[in-house]
């Protein structure tokens, strides 16, 4: 049973709307007599630091860390926790959870957490014990960087869409922000240049001359609700990779139609891998996105595997 909640609040999420929403959430917590503290993030990556600070002060079995924002906020908290426990392996792992009030809440969709903050808060408070979920782990072999993701790691098309969406004026609109990915997608699908890609599994090497969509996912959804792998689950000890080579407009239309009925993985031009370990190599610079957070254009030699962490969800 949780006795204290630490809320890590990204006030910049949802076009800055969380800054106005948090006082209402805080008031509700006080009305319910929930013991809690809040920490406001000040810049991108700050939730990593805050998570480690919280754990250094309190890693008791009665504590829970709550991400208040979008998937990016939860991503940072997960990585902060993982970094802390890498150097404190014998300590109790404090579970984390998610109050989805950002513009990208694919993890909430996958875990059936309400998009109404009041209902989602009640869901959090009704949990009696944590459960271990699978998270993705990656090692960038060219640069030596390492980290974790809760949702997806995308190279190419979806990452370019994230980049364009994040830099659009629509993204920061409180009313139209949720449409930023759709508008960016319409542009990027027409202009994106495919990239030669190699996928290395335990037993085989697969080469694709025109890698278009290259998405490694831990959950069914990406890009704000697109059900890219309906069978993906954070309860299963594997990651799913979907790779589509540059399609014709006819194939794009077919893909969209099949996507709506969750049959797109059966299409011949859609390549689907489900593995615990694999490596993706590209030799041209492209954007990538990790849980909706963009990274600079670069070549990739990245190895993926599964890990786990306790989450305060039903």
From TrEMBL:
TM stretches of this protein: none
Keywords: ATP-binding, Kinase, Lipid biosynthesis, Lipid metabolism, Nucleotide-binding, Phospholipid biosynthesis, Phospholipid metabolism, Transferase
Biological processes annotated in GO: phospholipid biosynthetic process
All residue ranges annotated as the DAGKc domain in the record: 1-141
This protein's record includes keyword Thylakoid: no
One Pfam family linked to the record: YegS_C
Family the UniProt entry places it in: Belongs to the diacylglycerol/lipid kinase family.
NCBIfam families cross-referenced by the UniProt entry: YegS/Rv2252/BmrU family lipid kinase (TIGR00147)
UniProt-recorded name of the protein: DAGKc domain-containing protein
């Amino acid at each position: 049973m949780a006795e204290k909640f630490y809320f890590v609040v990204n006030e910049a999420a949802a076009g800055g709307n969380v800054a106005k929403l948090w006082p209402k959430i805080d008031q509700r917590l006080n009305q319910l007599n929930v013991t809690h503290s809040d920490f406001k993030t000040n810049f991108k990556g700050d939730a990593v630091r805050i998570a480690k600070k919280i754990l250094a002060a309190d890693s008791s079995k009665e504590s829970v860390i709550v991400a208040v924002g979008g998937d990016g906020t939860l991503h940072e908290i997960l990585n902060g926790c993982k970094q802390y426990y890498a150097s404190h392996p014998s300590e109790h792992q404090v579970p984390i959870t998610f109050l989805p009030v950002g513009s990208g809440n694919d993890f909430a969709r996958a875990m059936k957490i309400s998009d109404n903050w009041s209902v989602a808060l009640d869901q959090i408070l009704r949990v009696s014990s944590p459960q271990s979920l699978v998270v993705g782990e990656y090692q960038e072999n060219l640069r030596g960087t390492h980290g974790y993701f809760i949702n997806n790691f995308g190279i190419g098309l979806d990452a370019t869409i994230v980049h364009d969406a994040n830099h659009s004026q629509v993204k920061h609109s409180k009313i139209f922000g949720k449409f930023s990915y759709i508008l960016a997608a319409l542009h990027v699908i027409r202009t994106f240049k495919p990239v030669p890609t190699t996928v290395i599994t335990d037993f085989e090497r697969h080469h694709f001359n025109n890698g278009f969509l290259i998405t490694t996912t831990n959950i069914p959804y990406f890009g704000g609700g697109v059900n890219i792998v309906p069978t993906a689950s954070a309860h299963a000890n594997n990651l799913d990779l979907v790779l589509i080579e540059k399609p014709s407009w006819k194939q794009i239309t077919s893909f969209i139609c099949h996507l709506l009925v969750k049959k797109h993985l059966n299409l011949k031009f859609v390549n689907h891998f489900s593995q615990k370990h694999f490596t993706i190599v590209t030799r041209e610079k492209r954007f990538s996105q990790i849980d909706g957070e963009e990274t600079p254009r670069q070549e990739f030699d990245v190895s993926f595997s599964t890990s786990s962490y306790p989450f305060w969800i039903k």
